[in-house]
Every structure is written in C-alpha cells, then in structure tokens.
Amino acid sequence: MKLNRNIVAGLCFVGFGVLAIAVLIPYGIVQPPSVKYRALSPSFWPYIVCSGIAVIGALLLVYELLAAFRTEDTTAGDAAPPAGRPAWIAGRPFIVMALLLAIYLTLEFLGFVLTTTLGLVALMLLAGERRPLIVVPVALLLPLALHLFFVKAAQRPIPGGVLDFLLQRI
Amino acid sequence: MWETLAASFAMFAQVDNVLALFVGVMIGTVIGAIPGMTTPMGVALALPFTFTMQPITGILLLLGVYKGGLYGGSITAILINAPGTPAASCTGLDGYPLARKGEARRALDMALYASCTADFISNLSLIFFAGILASFALSFGSPEFFTLIVFSLTIIASVSGDDLLKGLGAAGLGLALAIVGLDAIFGTPRFNFGNFDLMGGLNFIPVLIGLFAIPEVLNFYSKTETAQKLSALAGKGASLLDYRRALKSILRGSAIGVILGVIPGIGGAPAAFLSYSEARRTSKNQGNFGKGELEGVAAAEAGNNGVAGATLIPLLALGVPGDIITAIILGAFMIHDLRPGPLMFQQNITLIYALFIGIMLSSAYLFIVGKLSIRSIARIADIPQRILFPVVLVLCVFGAYAINNTIFDVLVMFVMGIVGFGMLRLGIPAAPFLIAFILGPLLEDNFRRSLRLGDGDWTIFFQGWITWFFWGLTVLTLVLIVWQRTKGRNGLPLGEGS
C-alpha cells in the first residue's frame, strides 16, 4: 500500500491528538487550585477537542485501510510531484520558507524597508523575473510606499532599523 | 411624523454630510481591500477626525467606513486570495477560483451587487424592525448562544469539500489553536509555555493571512508559471441573468445577515459562512461550490453585508454595541454627548431619522464606489504572478505587523502559512480550520458560562424554546448532510463522499 496523502493526513491528526493529550495539555495548561465541576476546568475543553482530532485521524486511517483492501489503486491522492516538473522547482517552496525565516529574523534590526526590499529582489529573481527595469523599481518603491502609508496615514510605528535616521526625514 | 421627517431631511441634506458619507465609503473600501487593515482599524483611525465635526457628519463618516470596509474585503479575496476582512475569506472560496479561470470581473461584479442588495435590505430592517429584533436578541443568554454556535459549526460540513473527515480534523485543529491564551474563567495560561506574546491568544488576522495568502505564494513557487489566460478586466462582467440566478441566495443571505447581525457578538464572518452553506445546500450546482461558483460569491457577500445595518439595531435601540465596530461608533456618539438607547428615540428622533436617510444613501454610494474601485483595483489581477506573489508577501508582512505593532504576529503569519501549505498539499481544507478558530472561543466561553449559570446542571442547554429551536436546526442539518453524502457516496468511504 502506498503512503497517500489521506494516510499522511490521518497520521498527522492522530499524532497531534496524542501529543496534545500526553504532553501539551498536562504541561501546557496550568490548573487552578480548585475547580467546582470537572467541565469548568481549563483543561476539560482541550481534552475534548484533542481527543476528537485523534479519533478523526484514526477514522481517516481506518477508511484508507478499508479502501486499500477494496481496491489496489491507491494512487489517486498521491502527493508526488507532477511528472515533467524540474526537481529544483519542487524545492523552491523550501527556499521561500528559508527566506521567510531570514525576513523574520532581520525585520527588527534592518528595518521593514530594507528587509522587504532585499526580500522582494530575492523572491522576484527566484520566481523568474529578470528584468532590472521591473525588479529594481518595484523592490525600492513598494516597501517605501507601504512604510509611508502605515507610518504617516495609519499612524503605525513601523521599525525603520538601520535606515531609521533616513526614513524619519521623509 | 411628517414634520419630523422633514426636519431630519433638512438636517441630513448638508454638503458636509453627503460628502462625509461618500468619503467614508471610499476609505472603508480601500482599507478593507488591504490585507491586514481591518474594518475596525479603519473606523478607529477615522474616529479622531470626527471630534471636530457635527455629530451627524462624524457618525456618517464612520458608518461609511464601516460599510465600505465590509465590501472592500472581498476585492483582494477574489483577486489574490488575501481576504481583507475575516468575512471575506468566505467570498474567496469561490471568488478566487473564478479569478483563476479569468472571470474575476464577473466575481467582483457579483460581490458588489450582492453587497449592495444585502446592505439595502439590512438598512430597511434597521429602520422597520429595530425595536422588535432588539428585544428578541436581548433574550439570548449563554445557553442560547452556545446552541446557536453549535448550529453555526454545521457549516463546516459544507466547506469541507469532498472530504468531510479532513474538514472535521481541520476544524479540530482550529478549535485547538483557539485555546491558546489565558483561560477566560480562571485566568490561568493555556498552551503559552511561558511566552508572553501568547498570553492574549493568537491574533485572528495573522492567522487568516497566513492560512489563505502565504500557501498560495508557496504553491506558486512549487510550479512552473503558466501564462495568464485573461486579465480581470478583459473578462465579462456579471449579467442581469447571473444576478437573477443568484437572487434567491442573495435574499436568503441578507436575511441570515440581518438575524445574526442583530445578535451581539456574532459579526459578519459566521453570517457569510452560514449564508454560503445554505446556498450550497440548496443549489443545483453543489459540486461546483469551492471551485468557482458565482452563487457562492453572492451568498457569502450577502451574508457579510446583511449584518451591516442590523448590527446598528441593538446599538441605536438599546445602546448595546454588537461588535467592536459598533462599540467604536458608540464612542463617537458619546464624544458628542449623545447616548444611543430608548431615550434617544424620544429626545433625538430627528437625528435618528437623519442617520437612517444617510444609511439608505450609503447603499447607493457603495454601488458607485464599488464600480469605480473594480475598474482600478481589479488591475491587480493583470500583474504577472512572478511579480504579484512577491508583492503580496511583502504586503502581508506589513499588514500582519500593523495589527498590533508586534513582530511576533509576522512570525505567526509565516508559521500559519507553512502549516496552510502543508494542509494544501495534504488536501486538508483551510476554511473549516478558520471557522472553528473564529467560533471556538465563543463556543467554549458560552459552554462554561452556561454550566456555571446552571450550577453544573447540563439540562441548562435544553431550557427555553430558543435552545430547542437551535438543537432542532442542528439535528435537521446533520441528518440532511448525512443523507446527501450517503446518497452521493456510491461506495466510497465517508471521507470521499459526494
């Protein structure tokens, strides 16, 4: 039997439910000294919800197993990449995820304008946009326009980072 | 009576008032269309500008922002699947697939027509049923709210697509995520793990943007770019026939919006999802819902905008704000030494009628501003995806931060985006997750409050005709869902029915 996406989803639900019941709820929810009724306890609702998730995951797995016995064809929901797609394209979402992490880590220090300018250049190049006349103006003007809108019109204190001294003069 | 009406008309018919309402609708539409800028944020930002205005001018400006914001949220939901408001995420379920098929113009037109119709009906309900509906809403206690929300959760079955079990699992995850924060009764931390940023729970907007916009960006990078078939403006607009076909759903959605809007604390999102669910349940094209069904767009927008006038009913008739926006508007009344409620109907009836006239005009303004904005904002869809998606990502970063001015919200958005991408690849629908995340805290709070009220007696959930009414509706809906899925199953497991 192939590991199709329904089985992976079922395993994820069961895994999350079990993890929550065994670890997250006992260690992540602080119980008050005394609770009049069990149903009023802060952990009552989480136990119900997480048990439900685990049961749904188990049901999904059972249905998949039953379906596997009924038919040999379990390829319908495979998460395998479509044929003909270059391997590097399949890996691009992971590069973007790494970029998201980099953006998050540098936002406060470099500031929103500089970080998102660099991010935009990287993202557009990764997406296949090579025309400098498009990449450069978009990367420079959009973050600046957004910064000015949020700071001046919406009165939001967007961090300027290393460019703060410059942005404050605009 | 006629003298009062004439005085009210004279009070309203000032250039300042007419202009303030128009500007308000325009600001609201633009703010609603920007992911991360919420309608409450727009109303709150406009509030300081009303301090120096005449009371009616200031309140009309805020009402304009409110109504424009409700519609504006649908524009980016349809064009780039980045809903500007929570309720607009429902519009995106069918609006975005339509845009991808090159029918964005049609979807935008239908969203506008449905919004204006529902807004008009909602305004009429405000004028005619203010007293009656407000007294009905007052009879809602925690048990009634609990049963109402249980019924609302049956929507999940409709938005789960072909796989009910995955939809239920996603809803479970949404409920679990909604638990994060401080316990509402004891004030003890839940799933915080010592993190101060998690004390207040997860903010709705970063979760929403993360779940709907970021997975689309990541999904774009996992494929080779395909040439765009049609520009949004090149496509046909919605015809009169389209409108007539969807009229039943629009009227039903408007009624749902009015009823839910009058109940404090419910808001536009549940109304949109409930209206969508009912439209899907009764439609001949059930299978097309979620894949680009125009009626789905109409139903969602009708439900969303149907609440606009109705939320003002408890505010004006009883002085009770139904949601955060009407709470801000209540603040505007109080700044001008006005206290909405039964007394205001006796002492300031001229002002009330003048507001009613302005509110009716706002539906027409919404149509004009909507038509204008479709022409300008719809050009977003013409931008090549290799430029559009990086731009969307940057817009999301600014938007997520601007909600609470915290970098943590940007992290929440990124994490939810990666979770959403995983869900997309595994075929787990995001809409049930979102609905459960919105309704989860309301469900749990009312469940526990009811039990406290009933001294631990579970029969409190079956006391009074309102609770029985909603239990009855829930059971009926569940029976219908099981029947429909069993009928369309043809030997497939429950998870793959109809």
What would you note in describing this structure?
The complex is a heterodimer of chains A (170) and B (498). By secondary structure, chain A is an all-alpha fold. Chain A folds into two domains: 66 residues; 81 residues, no CATH class. Helix content of chain A is 69%, strand content 0%. Chain A has six helices and no strands. In chain A, helix 1 runs antiparallel to helix 2, helix 3 runs antiparallel to helix 4 and helix 4 runs antiparallel to helix 5. About 4% of the residues of chain A have low confidence. Chain B has 498 residues and is an all-alpha fold. Chain B has a domain of 260 residues. A two-stranded antiparallel ribbon of chain B has the order 1-2. In chain B, helix 2 packs across helix 18, helix 10 packs antiparallel against helix 19 and helix 13 packs antiparallel against helix 14. Chains A and B meet through helix 1, helix 2, helix 3, helix 4 and helix 5 of A and helix 9, strand 2, helix 11, helix 19 and helix 20 of B.
The SS-based structural class of chain B is: mainly alpha
Cα Rg of chain B: 22 Å
Mean of residue pLDDT of chain B? 82
The end-to-end span of chain A amounts to: 63 Å
Total number of beta strands of chain B: 2
- Principal-axis shape of chain B equals globular
Largest chain interface and its two residue counts? A-B, 77 and 67 residues
Chain-averaged pLDDT of chain A: 86
Number of strands of chain A: 0
The amount of beta strand of chain A, in percent, is under 5%
Main β-sheet, spatial strand arrangement of chain B = 1-2
Major beta-sheet overview of chain B = 2 strands, antiparallel
Question: Separation of termini of chain B?
Answer: 57 Å
User: What Rg of chain A, in angstroms, do the CA atoms define?
Assistant: 25 Å
Tally of helical runs of chain A: 6
Total domain modules of chain A: 2
Q: Largest beta sheet of chain A, briefly? A: none
Instruction: Extract low-pLDDT stretches of chain A.
Output: 74-79
Helix content of chain A: 55-70%
Poorly predicted residue ranges of chain B: 490-498
- DSSP strand (E) fraction of chain B? under 5%
